[in-house]
Design goal:
The chain folds into two domains: about 30 residues, no CATH class; about 100 residues, Urease metallochaperone UreE, N-terminal domain (HSP40/DNAj peptide-binding domain, Sandwich). It contains two helices and eight strands; from the N terminus they run E-E-E-E-H-E-E-E-E-H. The strands form three sheets. A four-stranded mixed beta sheet has the order 3-4-8-7. A two-stranded antiparallel ribbon has the order 1-2. A two-stranded antiparallel ribbon has the order 5-6. A hairpin with a 2-residue loop joins strand 3 and strand 4. It holds the Pfam family DnaJ_C. This is Chaperone DnaJ C-terminal domain-containing protein. It comes from Euroglyphus maynei (Mayne's house dust mite). InterPro entries: DnaJ-B11-like, DnaJ_C, HSP40/DnaJ_pept-bd.
């Protein structure tokens, strides 16, 4: 059930004086989860990976709400903000429990902090990527 949905139980409420019991109505309110955000039947989460993992690929598991492990494998470069879909790993559909939504995983990349690279390390990185650094300025104004 989704947040704000109402469930009605016919004749399960408080009985009226000299009358039949009324209906009991429950309104579902969900608490925010620290890892997942629900939107309909879909779940969303963010995962932070290291710069090295973003460049060479990685494997990891995410613990789902029910405790099972969702395995993630990336064998290519993962850009900051990249999103992966895991079909069938979302929430069950209220009207058909055989259907599940999608789990969307958005990746953040953690860059090294506080460490200045030596000239030797800079040269090694340039050699690995075999490119000169090119500074590009883009402000979204299309040259106006």
């Amino acid at each position: 059930m989704e947040d704000g949905q109402e469930q009605r139980f016919i004749a399960e409420g408080e009985p009226h004086v000299d009358g039949e019991p009324g209906d009991l109505r429950l309104k579902i309110r969900t608490l925010p989860h620290p890892v997942f955000e629900r939107r309909g039947d879909d779940l969303y989460t963010n995962v932070t990976i290291s710069l090295v993992d973003s460049l060479i690929g990685f494997q990891m598991n995410i613990t789902h709400l029910d405790g099972h492990q969702v395995h993630i494998t990336r064998d290519k470069i993962t850009w900051p903000g990249a999103r992966m879909r895991k079909t069938g790993e979302g929430m069950p559909n209220y009207e058909n429990n055989n259907l599940h939504g999608i789990l969307y995983i958005t990746f953040d990349v953690e860059f090294p902090k506080g460490e200045q690279l030596s000239e030797e390390k800079r040269a090694q990185i340039k050699e690995i990527f075999k490119s000169e650094s090119k500074a590009h300025a883009y402000n979204g104004l299309r040259g106006y």
